[in-house]
Amino acid sequence: MIATVFLQTTNFIDAAYIVAFALLIYGMTGLTGPRTAVRGNKIAAVGMAIAVVATLLRKGEFHGSGTVWLIILGVAIGTAVGVPAARRVHMTAMPQMVAMFNGVGGGAVALIAWVEYRHGFGGGYPLRVEIFELFGAIVGSISFWGSNIAFGKLQEILPGHPIKAPGSIQTVINLVLLLICVASAVILCAGTHSQALFILGILVAAAILGNMVVLPIGGADMPVVISLLNAFTGLSAAATGVALSNPVMIVAGMIVGASGTILTNLMAKAMNRSVPAIVAGGFGGAVAAPVGAAGATGGTVRTTSAQDVAIQLSYARLVVIAPGYGMAVAQAQHAVRELEVALEQKGVEVKYAIHPVAGRMPGHMNVLLAEANVPYDLLREMDDINPEFSRTDVTLVIGANDVTNPAAKNEPGSPIYGMPILEVDKSAAVVVLKRSMASGFAGIDNPLFYEPKTSLLFGDAKTSVSEITAEVQAL
Description:
This protein has helices at 2-7, 10-29, 34-57, 66-88, 94-118, 121-124, 127-154, 169-189, 195-214, 222-244, 247-270, 275-280, 306-314, 325-330, 333-345, 364-371, 382-385, 407-410, 461-474; strands spanning 318-323, 349-354, 379-381, 394-398, 429-434, 454-458. It is an alpha/beta fold.
């Protein structure tokens, strides 16, 4: 009995929260590199488990003893669904899972606001608390529904091209929905008795707004959108934590909000686009349909064979591999690692060029290559590898389109003009592995493919790389 009372004391619960915070922050420091990422995730998970237990120990936190059993049931269902889903998901689908999990967080915040108002939250609580709770409801609902649209576009359930109302109608609709959310929140804070009507009005208007904001954004910008919505979810959780006097929600929410904001800014810079321009939509439609050997620019591509590529690579001094989303789709990372080892055995120096948005989310390529046991010191970020292309004998581009497109430097009228790219065109020779002449997410042609020093090997990336490796080993 004494032990039970002690576990429910404020001092013990606060101490447990402090331990949870420390583990969450320390776990995040492990996410800075592939070698420590798994350990960091496990440490952070332990911290979150401690925070959940500490929250359950708080007296008066729940409305009736039956609520505890509902929470336990919810944890059991969530575990039964989440663990198998996380274990089975392919790395190529990880961005979609991130979007879905992020949306669930925002939806949970919105549901908390609804439940609190159903229990008379708007009557006897300070105005400051109500403001934070309503802020969490609006932003959390926007994040939930916007994340669902992002998931649908990444999963190709929805079209990747922008979907928007003509002219300025889209902007007017968004402003009206935002006005409904804010006006309903003000009325609730003023002490209206029609709480259920206005809280539902907030949640419904915010839900429609979340859909309307993300639908006009093209597929190429989805990674930035996911990061932005992740920041929204964190901020809404922190605001709800203030309203409920829950320290773990405040700290965890602020960590997610701050990291998501920083990541959004970094990704926007990597694409040379402002966040307002991304939210305005219009960039990056669906992948263009394949065309023939002569591209849209009227140029002619030079095709090659696995044997010829193997000869080029085997007699090079420095080979740079530039992976893109096509490598991820083909799950060719292990085959690429085998090729790297085969070349190194012949005395060839091999490096990997990693563009910040080469995959569908930051670090996507790093994780894929780490999964194949590629040494971390062989990975070079864009700013580090670009000066080395001028001394590179052969650059092997695997399924990368927009991030190697020289139009970003040379064509002011291009949609991607000004976007930092991997300057593979400075290499002595470029070999591009592609399934077809389809464009990338930006939906534009790549002049690199028609340059005299560029040759293309068509086919599945995994199969092509394996054939090249076999030819290298046979030389």
